[in-house]
Write a structure and sequence with these properties.
alpha+beta; Hypothetical protein af1432; 3 domains; five-stranded antiparallel beta sheet
Length: 437
């Protein structure tokens, strides 16, 4: 028997219910993901202000009204102190960005991909040379890594999807460097959304690139078991942050960069390491680095690491962790920056075609741009083409819209984005026009 849905008036909603549909389109609401558990009275209040009724998945309901009431009391708007067993929830005032910058996309995905195509390879080479010098105790010149960071920041500022696209389709055998580079890209995209100025973005990007340096001091066999640690293994693994900080402290790096290295594994509710600090004691740049590093760890394929999450599933998990491991409005900014279906997500469309997300539209979160790689019978296309779902569905009736049916696992047969050139093949949808939209 499948999941049953029940129509519920918003004033009758209870904590623990799973809201699967609304009485209005999701993109017309502030909810960053489609489908979520009600965790607090604030969630109910938001639903009341936007909807008259919602659909609830009966099989997804987590707890009864009596248990929710006992936990939260009867004061409207009060947040529970404990969520998900003994995982403490912590609410803080919204993030405050001093003099935020409103960035505009000033170039197309097509042009920026061409500009940035070799940037990640150069970044990995510069990072490899610097980190190995630091690990060996040799004099290390950080200037090449600084220059690469500036180029990455400039690319993300001009066009936030291009570098993200390149980082998602490139292949490299070195998980350590790939992890640091991809973390930096996710963090820069989020930092851009937050309105951080370019100076702060440079600190953030450099801190993320160097955040994994301490892992070079750990046994290789331990790193190969990441995600499957015993308690003893994990105790050793946690030392990589302090080891990395020790390696870098005499390198002349700014305090802001070092704080990212030091605090990127701290968590909002104090459950992180190495110090277990929480809330506002975690520097803002480290908070951004932390959520980016966590997201990358969920979706990154690695040898012997099991099947990674689809990016869309990882987005849903992040949303569930708001005000637990990550501050709520930071989670929402991160999701707004990367989309419900982040760049690089493999998808199947409702008409059977399969492809990969190349970018998203903030006000049409469920209708991203897709590079289609197979036809409806899953046969590979000789030349990929781009479908802009938001534009395609703009004047269609709801029942006729082409939508994302499901996200597909990494490595799904016949779906290798690297085989196609997102800047190249034309199609009857007009690739150049769609990429410029």
């Amino acid at each position: 028997m499948g999941v049953q849905q029940r129509k519920v008036a918003v004033h009758d909603l209870e904590l623990g219910m799973f809201v699967s549909d609304l009485d209005r389109p999701w993109h017309q609401t502030p909810f960053p993901i489609q489908g979520f558990h009600i965790r607090s009275q604030d969630d109910i209040r938001a639903l009341v202000s936007h909807c008259k009724w919602v659909m609830v998945d009966v099989a997804e309901t987590r707890e009864s009204k009596s248990s929710a009431t006992a936990e939260t009391g009867s004061v409207f708007g009060r947040r529970p102190r404990k969520m998900k067993g003994d995982r403490e929830e912590l609410k803080l005032p919204p993030l405050h960005i001093r003099e935020p910058v409103a960035y505009e996309t000033v170039t197309t995905l097509k042009k920026e991909v061409k500009t940035a195509r070799h940037l990640l390879d150069d970044a990995e080479l510069a990072l490899d040379r610097y980190v190995k010098s630091v690990a060996n105790g040799s004099p290390a010149d950080v200037r090449p890594v600084l220059e690469i960071t500036r180029k990455m920041v400039s690319s993300v500022v001009r066009q936030p999807d291009a570098l993200l696209w390149l980082s998602r389709i490139r292949s490299t055998d070195d998980y350590l460097y790939r992890h640091g580079l991809n973390t930096a890209v996710w963090a820069l995209v989020c930092g851009r959304q937050l309105g951080l100025n370019e100076g702060l973005l440079n600190h953030l990007g450099l801190g993320c690139l160097l955040s994994q340096v301490g892992k070079l001091a750990l046994p290789a066999e331990l790193l190969n078991q990441e995600g499957h640690f015993t308690a003893e293994d994990y105790a050793v693994y946690r030392t990589y942050v302090e080891k990395g900080l020790s390696m870098l402290e005499s390198s002349g790096l700014s305090r802001a960069v070092l704080s990212v290295v030091q605090c990127h594994r701290e968590r909002h509710n104090g459950s992180g390491f190495p110090e277990g600090i929480r809330g506002d004691r975690i520097p803002l740049l480290a908070k951004v680095a932390g959520i980016a590093e966590f997201f990358e760890s969920l979706i990154a394929p690695r040898e012997g690491g099991g099947e990674p999450m689809t990016p869309a599933r990882a987005v849903s998990l992040l949303y569930e962790m708001r005000n637990i491991e990550f501050q709520e409005d930071l989670v929402e900014h991160f999701i707004q920056a990367i989309g419900i279906y982040p760049t690089g997500t493999l998808v199947e469309l409702s008409d059977g075609q399969r492809g990969v997300v190349v970018s998203h539209t903030p006000d049409r979160r469920l209708w991203p741009k897709i590079m289609v790689m197979t036809d409806a019978e899953r046969q590979p296309l000789k030349s990929a083409h781009i479908i802009d779902l938001a534009r395609l569905n703009e004047e269609r009736l709801h029942g006729d819209a082409i939508t994302v049916k499901e996200c597909l696992p990494h490595g799904t047969e016949g779906l290798d984005p690297a085989r196609y050139d997102v800047t190249g093949g034309e199609s009857r949808w007009g690739l150049g026009r769609l990429l410029n939209g």
